[in-house]
Amino acid sequence: MRTSAWPTLVLAAICICAGLLYAADGPRAQSEGPKANAKADSTQTSAQAAAASAPQTAEQKFKNIQVLKGIPADQMIPSMQFIAASLGVECEYCHVAHANEKDDKKPKLAARKMMTMMMQIDADNFKGEREVTCYTCHRGSVHPVGVPILSAENASASPTSAEGAAPAPALPSPQTILDKYLAAVGGAEAVQKIRTRVQAGNIEVSGKKSPIEINSRAPNQRISTSHVGSNVSVTAYNGEAGWLSTPNGVRPMSPAERQAASIDAQLYFPEWLPKAYQDFKTLPGETIDGKSTYLVTAIGTGQVPLNLYFDQQSGLLLRLVRFAETPLGKNPTQIDYADYRVVDGLKIPYRWALARPNGRFTIQIDDVKQNVPVDEKLFVMPNAPEAPKNP
Q1: Which one of 190, 337, 349, 388 is CB 3.0 to 4.6 Å from 186, fit for a cystine?
Q2: Are residue 204 and residue 280 in the same domain, yes or no?
Q3: pLDDT tens across 232-261, in order?
Q4: Three-state secondary-structure class, residue 161
Q5: CA 363, CA 200: separation in Å to the nearest integer?
Q6: What is the pLDDT of residues 329-345, one digit of tens each?
Q7: DSSP string, 18-35
Q8: What angle do CA 31, 32, 37 make, to 5 degrees?
């Protein structure tokens, strides 16, 4: 494979906003003429209903899909976000603005070949598992690094390989770390005493601050409302369904978004965590804001994989990284927690910074009230508008 082919490894679409992609009509059931009896009518009606309720595929919803055929339509945008982060590019690198279905740009045509090649490598060498992805070579750049980078230090002199180096200290068990975390926030009794939480503060995006309010109800309902000028942005999860506001109204969350929201909504997170996940491992963590951490990985049936970084001294959670699966790789979301304060006997973060492939923001809380009335109607999902159709 020639290195010169790699700079054009870019996906056909990198748009974050679904509104820039053109929706297509789904399959329509066709009439088969008069039926012999009522049973046949009933059978056809059931088949039509099943077809109508089946999730759309990418090629049914979007125009000119060539490689990612068959994937769920709601995985298309996360796949594009994965490539955007892997190559450090924006939509227009591959796309004609406001005409994403066109093939006018060479990077888009080359992207299809590169995606096919990547999938074939994984199929031939890794049993179809996504071991090789766009990020494997690109590392956030359009031009992959094809030459080894020389370190300023001699690798052979590193402490890990030096003769007589001190062995790494033994790591505590995951259960020990999780128990210390629960104790650090105030203990199980303090956690369970909280039935509602209302937080008010500011969300900072690209240096601009806007008011935000977050209402939570136990055990796993949460709605955040931010105000940017005259626009209101809502992210909500009611324990079963999730929804987001958009310029065109409200849209339901995708399954991946809903899974992520269900974690953020856990009011009893320190106690919920060891019950929801079954497989924990302790690894050396990294230094976060000058604090040494332990890394605990968590895997659970039906749950989003987590990497959790706990302060070795205080036991508090400093960072959570979760991973959303896409057909091309895993999209990470990192949340850094800080400014812990005690409210009603429970220690909670007043600041958290969230970073993901399509952007980042920081929330700073100024006021917290717990066990105050929170209107149940906030958690009733509004009716979503109908998806646009092709003219």
Answers
A1: 190
A2: yes
A3: 899 999 999 999 987 778 999 988 899 999
A4: coil
A5: 10
A6: 888 999 999 999 999 99
A7: GGGSPB-----PPP----
A8: 110
